[in-house]
# Entry
Amino acid sequence: MFRDRAVQFADRMKWEVSVDENGWERDEYDALDPLYVIWVNPDGGHGGSMRFLPTTERTMVREHFATLLNGADIRSPFIWECTRFCLGQKSTPRVAAALMLAGGELMRAFSLTQLLGVFDPRMVRIYAMIGASPEVLGSMGVGRDKISVGLWPFRPHDRLRVLRRAGLSSEISEHWFDRSFGHAVQEIRKAA
# Structure
């Protein structure tokens, strides 16, 4: 995952990120015990991933992209930040949708209302293709250098669109969640 992040963010996108001697891209937020969603390819390699942190704690948006929000501070136990959306070098077209679906399953399980994230113009097309476009809260820059911050709701009809795009059934998605957390989405919601 961290090697693919280096390839995506440092090599391809030319972002100013830190890459260590192992070729891994890691930042200060990886040290905050985030929750990662990781797609594993059939060969066991990294297919794609995302990182999640609650907005009640430190976030990349608050500490590095606050100007995009014109002074607003998004802090809620019902909104988590989603960053480092990364597609592996051997990912298939459905991986992006599967990652977005996983984010939606987290929202369902933990009663989240929205996800918060920063994205660039190339992701706008990907999000639209998946059927999970954000509400843009602010942007700066132009062309390929434009950066935006947005909120993603995850409504039931969004989930159905993303399931179709990922080529997955609701039962499979829920099974994966259960295997990852040891509890079904519905059990976690009841306990909360």
Observations:
- The first strand starts at residue 35 and ends at 40.
- Strands lie at 35-40, 46-54, 79-87, 114-119, 135-140, 147-152.
- The mean pLDDT is 91.
- DSSP finds seven helices and six strands in the chain.
